[in-house]
Amino acid sequence: MIFKQRRNFLKNSFLSSVVLLTYSGELFGAVTTMETMSVVHKDLFGEVADVPTAESINANSYLYKILKHSKITSQNKAFIKDGIKWLNEEAVSKYKKTYTKLSDKQRQKVLQEIADTIWGDSWLENILTYFLEAMLGDPLYGGNKAMSGWKWLNHKPGLPRPTKAFL
Amino acid sequence: MKYDICIIGSGAGGGPVAYELANAGYKVVVLEKGPNYSEKDFTKDEVAVSRRSMYTPLLKDEQHVINDRDRDGVVTRYEGNEYNWSFWNGSMVGGSSNLMSGYFHRMKPDDFRLKSKYGKIQGANIVDWPISYDDLEPYYTKVEEVIGVSGDAVKHKFSEPRSTKNFPYPLLEVNSATKWFDSACKGLGYESIPTPRAILPHNALGRKGCSYSNFCGSYGCATGAKGSARAALLQKCKAEIITDAFVFKLESNEANVTRAHYYDKDMKRKSIKAKIFVVAAQAIETSRLLLNSKNIHFQNGLANNSGQVGKNLIFSAGGVGQGRIRFEKLTKEQQRELMQPGVFFNRSLQGWYEYESKGKKLKGGTIDFLFEHANIIGRATKELRDDNGNLIWGAELQKKMHKNLTTSRVLKFEVFNDWLPTDYCNVTIDDKVKDKYGVSVGAINLYSHPHDIKIAQHLAQKAKRVLHDMGAEEVSVSISSAPPPNLVAGGCRFGINPKTSVLDLNCKAHELNNLYVTDASFMPTGGSVPYTWTIYANAFRVADAIIDSLEA
Predict the structure, then answer these.
(1) Residue A14: its pLDDT value, please?
(2) Distance between CA atoms of B200 and B168, rounded to whole angstroms?
């Protein structure tokens, strides 16, 4: 029973886990990775008519699924999670609020600032790349709902399409 | 059980030997490191194939160490796992021939006599091949027929001699935009050549023809039209194939290999006895296996008392370039033609396979033209940055991505020229890193000769002119000394002199009676074309020599 609970904890531990934030050496607060990532996804791909949105392509659930993949290195997984912490620390440092509590304009300002750093540029590129995988990979993986990503870009998938996800 | 032949590796080097020997009635076993797939297993799953590298091992389990030497002689060490630098190509029955694009060019007669024809180059270990084009020509023809090569043998300045009038299979269908290419070439005085492909245009050889699925390179072929060693050879013979078998050591006495030792999928040690052993594990891994098979008779590695195993590793030199053809300059009909999915581009230039510079004849190379790969995630990720290289997102990203992917198409070119063999480019064994089996990994010592870049740049300038004259925008070129992992050869040169080569004329080890190497390791120089056709042809040639030796 203990082992089973332990496995469940590990299984759920990435996007549902809590990240503790410090400011000036003291504990500032805590955020969940899932909550931050949901907002980041919306901020990075916006919500425009006729364009797939983070919600419509299930970007969060895709990221949750793919970050358990054996072919994604542990360094990459850790970097995604560290980036969430650093993004929030940047928000706290600049506005004394966690990222999700900021206004649209403030969040864009924070994104722009981290994009000018080496880690931030790399982290945002990672998040955007996984977002594009969710939007344009086969719907079998849980994203690209109703092939909305393919339709938006007039893409005809190669045949035969997969019938089993490679996880 | 003792087999007649044990073959290590099932790709373009191992496949022909298995096919010929099994069909001649010999008892053949093939040890393949990867799993077996059939046509029904191959889908166009970009996430699995291109994003998650489903056909290659995890680098934390199996990697290489790369020692990169710069022009000043400074060597930097990279562990493949730490730097995500992979030299694996396709661990599966049929090897990377399953995943090739199948751009098939023969080497030309002068490729076999590079030193005699073009002379020495300081710092390069150029030698002539011990055989000529005429020796290999019948086998190039055999590959056309058995593997299935489609094309049209048009005459041009550097077309090679053929024993048959034309290819046995007609041209694949091409995109209408090829006529713009042909027209631009005509205006420039260039000879446009239809690119031969190892793809069947119609049902033949017990395989289905091409379905024009729009996803070819990097993907397994779901119809069997692509001439992989699996579809064309191993599925057409009765060789026994043991999958998930990683061979880590060959055991020998002073004259013969006696056993191949391998780990099975449960990591259990097993071994195979045979009369003849053939190694075709792809160039780097072949040298690694021989070097890791030291014994009392061969203290520097099997067949390596000469010290030549692993030496003179080569890749294909060259690079890539591209231009974007936009709707704005096209009529509605031309826009439709440009976006035709599935059909190929299939155009090549070889007009500078040899050229003159400052009164000296230089060996040039081949330029293949192709549309950007259909991978939609791959194409979309290329839109993540603006012209200044800054990351973009939101509406700016959406606008750029939608415009570029729906109202333009990228035409690319790939340059192939000789990667000159040198003292600094070779395979050794790394003494620190071991793989998941506990076996020392191969170290790839990298160095490229400056001459390679000079030739590639010359060719790229010619290709750029075609793109410009076709009206392409954003024309760019990337020529570098980066080694393409899928275009690797050398390490076990064949030659007449046992002191300067590992293998004899028939690719049998000079120092052992029953050890052959039939992947690209044997090549002393690589020619200025992709290697696969030559690997296939030579392996068929060696198969004949093995049969002769068994019958004798």
Answers:
(1) 60
(2) 10
CA distance B200 to B216: 13
Where in chain B are the domains?
2-551
> pTM value?
0.96
Which CA distances in Å does B163 have to B156, B168, B170, B528? 16, 12, 17, 21
The per-residue pLDDT for B55 is 97
Taking Cα atoms as reference points, which of B483, B452, B520 lies closest to residue B315?
Answer: B483
Contact call for B52 and A138, based on CB within 8 A: no
Mean pLDDT of the residues in chain B = 97
CB B439 within 8 A of CB B344: no
What's residue A64's pLDDT? 84
Residue with tokens 């935009």: B177
Domain extents in chain A: 18-44+54-145
Q: Which residues of B touch A (CB under 8 A)?
A: 42-48, 51-54, 58-60, 84, 211, 213-215, 219, 222, 341, 374, 376-377, 380-381, 384, 390-391, 393-395, 397-398, 401-402, 405-406
DSSP B468-518: HHTT-EEEEEEEE-PPPTTSEEEES-B-S-TTT-SB-TTSBBTT-SSEEE-
User: In angstroms, rounded to a whole number, what is the distance separating the alpha carbons of residues B535 and B519?
Assistant: 6
Over 60: is that where the pLDDT of A9 sits? Answer: no
Would you call A44 and B393 a contact, using CB atoms and an 8 Å cutoff?
yes
Residue among B311, B446, B348 at smallest CA distance from B152: B348
Superfamily name with CATH number, domain B2-551: FAD/NAD(P)-binding domain (3.50.50.60)
Q: For residues B322 and A56, which has the higher predicted lDDT (pLDDT)?
A: B322
CA distance A91 to A100: 9
Q: Is B114 exposed, middle or buried (0-12, 13-18, 19+ CB in 10 A)?
A: buried
Which residues in chain B touch residue A150, judged by CB atoms under 8 angstroms apart?
A: 376
For residue A48, which residues of chain B lie inside 8 Å, CB to CB?
Answer: 395, 398
Peptide bond into A160 cis (omega under 30): yes
